[in-house]
Write the structure tokens for this entry.
Amino acid sequence: MTSFQGHSVLITGGGSGLGEGAARHFAARGAQVTITGRRHEALARVASEIGEQCCVVVGDVTVAEDRGRMIAEAIRHGDGQLHTLVNNAGNMYRGPLADLDEQQLLNVFHSNVIAGMMLAQGALDALERTSGAVIFIGSVHSQRAFPGASPYAATKGAVETLTGVLAAELGPRGVRVSCVRPGAVFTQINQRAGLGDDATALARLEGLASAHALGRIGTVEEIAEAIAYLATAQWTTGAVLTVDGGLSLGVTNA
Ligand SMILES: NC(=O)c1ccc[n+]([C@@H]2O[C@H](COP(=O)([O-])OP(=O)(O)OC[C@H]3O[C@@H](n4cnc5c(N)ncnc54)[C@H](OP(=O)(O)O)[C@@H]3O)[C@@H](O)[C@H]2O)c1
């Protein structure tokens, strides 16, 4: 098992879903983790279960002052160091083109794309000192066309593209930039996207199982493993690691 002893990680959106899974994964291997989000109670629950290794910053990634606090607190919690920034916080905004609202489009680009870039900017000097990594979270939506999901898909396409450009730009400073591209995993984002209550959202997601080469949706831990791998892979940068059970292959049994 890879040790993350002495490793400091900042994970946005760490109070639920994939961010929570990543926080638990890193902490179980010795890392100091700082988790952020807007809901204090969600963060406090995760932190109380992880223990002293986990530090909480309540804030909104679209607010510059909050991002500054997140980075400062992660460095403080990491004894002056930051090794990995996981830009995981994200929202799904979907709807048919005719119904899209411009302000909501701006909001989803702000949280899913711009906030992560600005966090990377703010954390850059600290990451340079540790030869650290920025890890973005893309989505299978960049590869498969789900009608009605154009806003979300566009943000994830942007994230995957900027991963390569930032990797080229920051490579000379020793900072690696990569991206995990998850397929379908049951988390709160599916409910917030209007897929229904817990049971309905899970059933609708499970309905996608046969579209996966491996015949099932994924787990939070399977995504956390990929994030942790990219945090340590010293000769990998600009990579978009697809972890989707084969959903993006577009398997058809015609
Ligand atoms: N689940 C999937 O199938 C799947 C597949 C591909 C990609 N992803 C991506 O994985 C990432 C995590 O999503 P998830 O599935 O784990 O869903 P989730 O449980 O809804 O997690 C999203 C997290 O982002 C945080 N967040 C959202 N907007 C924020 C803001 N403005 N400021 C601060 N924090 C904010 C939320 O915390 P607060 O509400 O407390 O702020 C929440 O903890 C997202 O980028 C998503 O697009 C998910």
